C-alpha cells in the first residue's frame, strides 16, 4: 500500500506545484545569438476568452472545440539554451537572452496555414507533426516542439497538434476522453497535410498522444483513407501510454502500416508505472519488458532504460536527456 501511495503522490507532483508555463509574446523582440524556431500550431482547444469557466482554469484551452484553429509562432530560443531544457521565465520578466519567448504570432485560416507551410519548407518533402501527451497545456506543447526541433537539428517544418489536455495532474481521465474527442481533428489535419500537392508527414507522439495517433490511424484505415496513410513518412511513439493488447488490435487494422515505425521505451518510466497500476496491468507499451509479445509487427524498439539524465521520472527521457538526444539524432539520420 505504501508503494501505491508513493506512486500516486508522484503523479500528482508532476510537473510540480509551481505555476504552469504560458507563452511570453514579445513582438519583434530578439536577443543577440538567439535562434528563431518557427512552430506551426493546429489546435482543437477553445480559446479561453470564448470558453466558459473551465474545470482546470487553463489560460488557453482545456475546453474542447470541434473546430480546428491554426497559427504560426516564431519561438526565440536563448543563446545559452541547454539541450533538453525549456528555459521558462518562471517568476521573472521574460528575457529573450535567457528564456523561450514568442517573437511573432500569426493566427491563420486553413488555406493560409497550408500555404505558409509550403513557404517554410521550400525544397523539403516532409513535415514533422508532434502530438503531445497527458498533462500538457498549449504553451508547453508549443515550446516543447520548438525545443525538440532545435535540439534535434530538424530542417523541416514542424507542427504541433495541440489537443485539449486539461494541463493538470488530476485531469488523467479528462485527457483520455479528450483523446477520443480529438481523433476527428487529427484526421482532418492529416488529410489536409497529405492531400493533393501536400507533403509526407512524419508523426512523433508522446505518452497519451500515442493513443490518439493510433486511434486516428485505425479510424482512417477503417474509413478507407489508405492513400493518406501511404503518405506518412514514419511514426515514432515516445513513452506510449497504451495497453499492449489494445496496441496490437489497433495495429492490426492499420493498412498500410507506416514505415519506419519506432517505439521508444524505458523500464524506468515512473509515470507509466502509475498508469499501469491504475489500469490493473503490469506494464504499458512504453515500458514493455517482453518485445516478443508484439510478434512480427514491423516496429523498431529503442530502449532508453540505461540512458542517463532527463526528467527525474523517466517519462520524457527521449527529448530531455542530452545523451538520449544525441543517441536518437545519430540513430535516425
Topology:
Layout: H1 2-13, E1 35-47, E2 60-77, E3 101-108, H2 110-120, E4 126-131, H3 138-151, E5 158-162, H4 172-181, H5 183-194, E6 200-206, H6 208-222, H7 226-229, E7 232-238, H8 244-253, E8 261-265, H9 270-279, E9 300-303, H10 317-320, H11 322-331
Parallel strand pairs: 1-5, 4-5, 4-6, 6-7, 7-8, 8-9
Antiparallel strand pairs: 1-2, 2-3
Helix pairs in contact: 1-9, 4-6, 5-6, 6-8
Oligomer kind: single chain
Mean pLDDT: 88
Domain count: 1
Query: Low-confidence runs (pLDDT<50, min 5 residues)?
Result: 1-19
CATH T-level topology: Rossmann fold
Classified in CATH, the superfamily is Alpha/Beta hydrolase fold, catalytic domain
Adjacency order of strands in the biggest sheet: 3-2-1-5-4-6-7-8-9
Indicate the proportion of strand residues.
15-25%
Distance between the termini: 45 Å
**Overall helicity:** 25-40%
Number of helices: 11
CATH class: Alpha Beta
Q: Which architecture name does CATH use?
A: 3-Layer(aba) Sandwich
Structural Rg: 19 Å
Q: What gross morphology would you assign?
A: globular
Elements, N to C (H/E): HEEEHEHEHHEHHEHEHEHH
- Largest β-sheet summary: 9 strands, mixed
Record field, number of beta strands: 9
Structural class: alpha/beta
Protein name: Alpha/beta fold hydrolase
Keywords: Hydrolase
Pfam families: DUF900
GO molecular function, one term: hydrolase activity
Amino acid at each position: 500500500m505504501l508503494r501505491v501511495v508513493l506512486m500516486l503522490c508522484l503523479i500528482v507532483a508532476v510537473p510540480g506545484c509551481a505555476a504552469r508555463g504560458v507563452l511570453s509574446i514579445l513582438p519583434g523582440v530578439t536577443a543577440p545569438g538567439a535562434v528563431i524556431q518557427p512552430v506551426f500550431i493546429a489546435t482543437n482547444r477553445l480559446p479561453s476568452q470564448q470558453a466558459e469557466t473551465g474545470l482546470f482554469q487553463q489560460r488557453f484551452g482545456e475546453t474542447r472545440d470541434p473546430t480546428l484553429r491554426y497559427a504560426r509562432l516564431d519561438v526565440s530560443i536563448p543563446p545559452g539554451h541547454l539541450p533538453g531544457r525549456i528555459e521558462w521565465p518562471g517568476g521573472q520578466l521574460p528575457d529573450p537572452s535567457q528564456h523561450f519567448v514568442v517573437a511573432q504570432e500569426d493566427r491563420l485560416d486553413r488555406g493560409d496555414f497550408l500555404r505558409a507551410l509550403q513557404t517554410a519548407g521550400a525544397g523539403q518533402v516532409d513535415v514533422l507533426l508532434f502530438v503531445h501527451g497527458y498533462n500538457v497545456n498549449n504553451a508547453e506543447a508549443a515550446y516543447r516542439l520548438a525545443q525538440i526541433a532545435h535540439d534535434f537539428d530538424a530542417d523541416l517544418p514542424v507542427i504541433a497538434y495541440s489537443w485539449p489536455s486539461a494541463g493538470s495532474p488530476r485531469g488523467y481521465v479528462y485527457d483520455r476522453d479528450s483523446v477520443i474527442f480529438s481523433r476527428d481533428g487529427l484526421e482532418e489535419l492529416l488529410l489536409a497535410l497529405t492531400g493533393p500537392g501536400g507533403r509526407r508527414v512524419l508523426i512523433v507522439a508522446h505518452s497519451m498522444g500515442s493513443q490518439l495517433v493510433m486511434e486516428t490511424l485505425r479510424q482512417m484505415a477503417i474509413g478507407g483513407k489508405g492513400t493518406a496513410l501511404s503518405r506518412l513518412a514514419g511514426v515514432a511513439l515516445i513513452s506510449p501510454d497504451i495497453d499492449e493488447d489494445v496496441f496490437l488490435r489497433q495495429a492490426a487494422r492499420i493498412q498500410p502500416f507506416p514505415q519506419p515505425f519506432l517505439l521508444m521505451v524505458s523500464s524506468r518510466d515512473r509515470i507509466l508505472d502509475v498508469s499501469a497500476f491504475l489500469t490493473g496491468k503490469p506494464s504499458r507499451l512504453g515500458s514493455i519488458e517482453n518485445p516478443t509479445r508484439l510478434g512480427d509487427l514491423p516496429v523498431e524498439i529503442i530502449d532508453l532504460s540505461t540512458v542517463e539524465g532527463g526528467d527525474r521520472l523517466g517519462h520524457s527521457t527521449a527529448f530531455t536527456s542530452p545523451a538520449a538526444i544525441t543517441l536518437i539524432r545519430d540513430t535516425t539520420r
